[in-house]
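Below: protein 1.
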Amino acid sequence: MVLVAIASFAISFGGLISRYMEDADAWQINIHRSLSTAAVVAVVFLLRYRGGAARQFVRIGWPGIFGAGLLAMAGIAFMQALTTTTVANTLFTLSAIPFVTAALAWVFLREGLSRVTVVTMIGAAAGVAVMLAEGVGGGSLYGNAMALVTTFGFSGYAVIIRRHRHIDMLPAYLLSAIMLCAVALLVRIGDWSISWWDLGLCFIWGGLLSGIGNIFFIAATRYLFAAEVTLFMLLEFALGPVWVWLFVNETPSTWTLAGGSLIMAAVFARTLYQVRVSRRVVVRGRLAGPV
């Protein structure tokens, strides 16, 4: 729980960091942020597999390559969202990821959906719709749409990971950073240099916050229920808008607060319900004793 809380707290500063960039645009940020992420993940990957790293990389196959492509697409859309709409709109939309993932798993993996999950998905979808409706009249429709693309990209990647959970997809995460960097370099041919200040922020964001934060998440999920992980992930989505409000006075609109509240309430209620059910199952198992 401590690892997940630390990771969520650290990653929540991503939106604030984007607001402190001097002159780097979304593509330039993606170049240097993804390079930092790739460097950190590569070090962890090589330390973990050493001589077997190449063989482990090949094991991901086409599913891993496709998943990496979805993750790279999500990374591109994420920066487009952050730079064209508010941090609150972006992060509140991303908080619907668990339920978009559940819907995609139902379609492609034939995993069942409980009644509680369906109700929660409807509530989250209503919240996203409210924020998208604001964009139609407020000029942030593109940014809100990019946040939605990010959500589906991450969710698609999660479904692939679940479908091929017998394979360590850490190389796919590394490959996605390389893909993202390559696309951004093509878009910004000859114009990828940024100030030292922006370069330092990109390293902090990509290498320290995102890279190490995700490593903490992977380690923590071995000891927590999935619902508990989701509960702590809410810290990132809830705190992100708070930081930009406190430090750069980016105040969420009424529509954003209304839609975000719907999403967060749906996620929070569903998570608490699942934690309660999971704990009840564990208690019953302990009372029953060994068979």
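Below: protein 2.
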Amino acid sequence: MHVEGFRFDLASVFTRKSDGSISLDDPPIFGQIAADPELADIRLIAEPWDASGSFQLGSRFPGLLWMQWNSVFRDGVQRFVRGDAGIVPELMTRIYGSSDLFPDDRLNALRPFQSVNYLSCHDGFTMADLVSFNKKANLANGEDNRDGLDDLSWNCGWEGNGNVPADVAALRVQQVKNFVLLLMLSNGTPMFRMGDEFMQTQNGNNNPFNQDNETSWLNWALLDKHSDVYRFSKRVIAFRKQHPSISRSVFWRDDAHWYGPDHAPDLSHKSRQIAWCLHGNLLNDEDIYVMVNAGAQSIVFGIHEGAVGDWLLVADTSPPSPQDVFAADEQFAVKQAFYYVMPRSVVLLRRCLPNRVRN
């Protein structure tokens, strides 16, 4: 059947013994799967919780070669993009590859690609609904189905999809682009929910498991309505594929230099800004420079590496399409040693050095 692998729902149930208690001491099912010649080399992906409250993620999960849905990445990035204070250190850890959860120390041999980074899935709000609803709307057929997840959403100042003011609609598009860009610039394995690339909505229902209607059907008309988000998503995904230094089999370590608007990163509770430069020299790749402003005011970021004119603008989530993302032959140099990063936006630059030009 050419099945490449399996994703196990509620996979932490594997750590439960027959009496329901939890044992993390080498549950036999992992060894049995690894020893089966038909299963040994396929991709195995685990959801980190089970139906009774167990939560085994990263080094706590006994399947040490398995990939795992990283809901901690989801929560941290959702909070940051929403504008929560005190999230900068958390965001740095998630962007870096969640080394706290997937350590490669002496006791573990985990790798960042085992972290399946995602911001939306079949459980919870779609990306569009994350920026459109503060409350769940799970009413169906007269029955109030309120057992969905508690999403870290923010409606951008207007609840729901009806009669949305133009400025709110524009901000929602910008926030979705922020989600897409941060996901694709993070070390780990990105997972993308189908339809998010054109702002699929479930109209606030974050748990439509019992819906076989317009709530859960994919609305292809939104592809035309939000062709700008589709275009942005395609180009950002292509950029990631063209830059192997972003997603590595190991952590970035000294190749990542962290900054703030000023030279040192601001890790204080009030900070909502972070920047980093990722060097690609070990993989014959280009350097990239990222500036993130989750605050409500524009911020002047210094560009703290390279000379003036070294950096080309790849993406800025604040302007409307087509000025939000540029193909390689459209990119232009930033002519100063700083950049005005607009409120609630992410900026991506690349530095193409002569001895590291990729075909």
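The longest strand covers residues 287-293.
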